[in-house]
Design brief:
The chain is α/β, with parallel strands linked by helices. The chain is 28% helix and 28% strand. Strand 6 (166-171) and strand 7 form a beta hairpin.
Length: 269
C-alpha cells in the first residue's frame, strides 16, 4: 500500500449520496483515490475483489446484499497471507443509539447526510489505522466478524443467523455429532473443512465463510481465511522466525498461523 495515495471503493444505491460522499472526501482527504463506485452490495464485493482497496464505504441498506452482508463476504475474499483486510466504513441513517455498536473500533461509520465535521473525524481515524498497518501497535479492539454479528443483531435482527450447537461430521465410515464446545479449531481446504477436537478429527463440506456466520464469534475467532479457532482452546501465541504469529492449541500439537489481516486480535504480540 502506498501510504501517500490510499484507495477506496464507495457503495451506495443512491447516486446522489455517492456523489455527495465523493465530494466531501475530496475536501477532507484530497489524496484519497476513489477507484470504483458500486450501486449495490453484490457490486461492492466484486469491485473490492477487483481493485483491492485500502478502504470500502458501504451503505448499510442496499439491494441484493446489505452493507453488513457485503462486509462479511469481503472479509472472506482470497488474499495473500501478508495482505490486509480493507478498512470498513458503514454509511448509515441510523440514530446515535444504533450507531453505538460502531464505536468499538473494528469499523467506522458516516451518518447520512455526510457532514464534513463528522467525516473529518472518520478520516482522521482511518489515516491513523492505515499508518499503523504492519507495526506492533496495529489492530486491537473487537474482531471484525464479531462486530458484524453484533451489528446484525442490533440493526437487522431478522437476518441474524442461528448459532450452531453441534457439528454433524464424517469420522471414517460413521457420522458423529460433535458438540461445538469440544471443537478446538476448523481448517478448510478447497473441498472440505477439518473439524478438530482433542480426540477426533472429522471432515465436513461446510466452508469457513459459512461457519463464520453460524458460530458464536465471541467463542470462535477467525485467524486466517481458512482457519477458525476456539478462543477457550488457545494455550499461547508466539512469533516464528519470520515474525508471524503462531497459535498453540491446548491438547493438540498443531500450530496455527495467524495471517496479517487478523494479527490485531492479539494486540501487543
Amino acid at each position: 500500500m502506498n501510504a501517500a495515495a490510499p484507495r477506496a471503493v464507495i457503495a451506495d444505491d443512491e447516486r446522489l449520496m455517492r456523489e455527495q460522499l465523493r465530494a466531501r472526501l475530496a475536501q477532507t482527504w484530497p489524496e484519497l483515490q476513489i477507484v470504483a463506485e458500486a450501486r449495490n452490495g453484490r457490486e461492492a464485493v466484486d469491485l473490492v475483489a477487483a481493485h483491492d482497496p485500502d478502504i470500502v464505504f458501504l451503505d448499510i441498506r442496499m439491494p441484493g446484499l446489505t452493507g453488513i452482508e457485503a462486509a462479511r463476504e469481503i472479509a472472506q475474499l482470497p488474499r495473500g497471507a501478508d495482505a490486509c483486510l480493507p478498512e470498513v466504513v458503514f454509511i448509515t441513517a441510523y440514530d446515535e443509539y444504533a450507531v453505538q455498536a460502531f464505536e468499538q473500533g473494528a469499523v467506522d461509520y458516516v451518518l447520512k447526510p455526510a457532514e464534513r465535521e463528522r467525516l473529518q473525524r472518520t478520516v482522521d481515524r482511518l489515516r491513523e489505522r492505515l499508518a499503523l498497518r504492519g507495526t506492533p501497535d496495529e489492530g486491537g479492539g473487537v474482531p471484525l466478524q464479531r462486530l458484524l454479528h453484533e451489528l446484525t443483531a442490533r440493526l437487522e435482527p431478522e437476518r441474524a443467523p442461528p448459532r450452531l450447537q453441534w457439528i454433524q461430521a464424517g469420522v471414517g465410515s460413521t457420522i458423529q455429532m460433535i458438540p461445538i464446545d469440544e471443537v478446538l479449531f476448523f481448517i478448510s481446504d478447497e473441498k472440505y473443512t477439518r473439524v478438530q477436537t482433542a480426540r477426533v478429527e472429522a471432515l465436513i463440506r461446510k466452508p469457513i465463510k459459512e461457519l463464520v456466520d453460524e458460530l458464536d464469534p465471541a467463542q470462535f475467532w477467525q485467524i486466517h481465511r481458512s482457519t477458525l479457532v476456539n478462543v477457550k482452546a488457545i494455550a499461547e501465541v508466539t512469533r516464528d522466525f519470520r515474525g508471524r504469529q503462531i497459535v498453540q492449541v491446548k491438547g493438540h500439537p498443531e500450530k496455527l498461523e495467524v495471517s496479517r489481516s487478523y494479527a490485531g486480535l492479539f494486540k501487543g504480540m
